[in-house]
Predict the structure.
Amino acid sequence: MFTALTIAGSDSSGGAGIQADIKTMSALGVYAMSVITAITAQNTTGVYGVQYVDDNMIENQLNCVLSDIFPDAVKIGMVSEPYIVEEIAEELRKYNADIMVVIAFGQILPKEILEMTPYGCVNVHASLLPSYRGAAPIQWAVINGEKVSGVTTMQMNEGLDTGDMLLKVEIPLDEKETGGSLHDKLAEAGARLCVETLDALKAGTVTPEKQGDSPTAYAKMLDKHMGKIDWKMSAKEIERLIRGLNPWPSAYTRWNENDKGMKIWEAEVAEGQTDKAAGTVVEVAKDGFFVQTGDGLLKITALQIPGKKRMDAAAFLRGYQMETGTVL
């Protein structure tokens, strides 16, 4: 049985971090071990607290693992504090690894780490570089209406997603693609491409390719405020925003005089245009309601209100009143 060590923070909801790594490794038949760098309070809506583990405890955890059940591979996740990076780097030098693979790390590694192994550091990036360098390439590809995305492996340098490209794979986007569904597609494709890249490097059959200038804006990190819908945008732009921010941080709007929030999970661009102000509900049907945007109409078909589960618009309209003329 192969063994693997994950060095990362925890995720109390189990969707990321140590918990997700252990589940993934176990599902693949790998014996999983862990070094916890931070304890977080988080769920699908955000991170609400972080407690970092001190360097002595990190060193003790690493020594316990590396001196007993030596891992075949090491995965590094949340190491956001400089002292944590230094401690891990010092211990991993003793590991004598051939190569380091970095996935969704979001930080620039110092030169001493980049040069620690014979084959350097390989990054698996969820875009077709040089497009969409940055922290959230998956969601921005959906928001911007891209027809094709993909995964690129690259030899890391001291820049941010600027290293020489190794291999690529393209993934077409469906019309109803969400940030979540594209993430899952690219995760699967990226895993295969990572193995292919490692094999090619070992065989000496891959030729690094320099990146040119990026044709897209930097894919900046997402935050909750991005989800607030500006109804002055076009219906097409809002519909893509809703899909791109699904499942996190999600698009939302106000929906009554008490300024309660309403998450919008699904919507459709509808034909027509009225003279009503952007954000006005202009029609209510059995299966949804139509909102005037800055350009065109948007039909809301799935949503969520505070204290309730996600529901289709038809279910919402059976229990709540949404009147024509309401301004969201």
Q: What stands out?
A: DSSP finds eight helices and 14 strands in the chain. The longest strand covers residues 31-43. The chain has two domains: 3-203, 225-319. The first helix runs from residue 17 to 27.
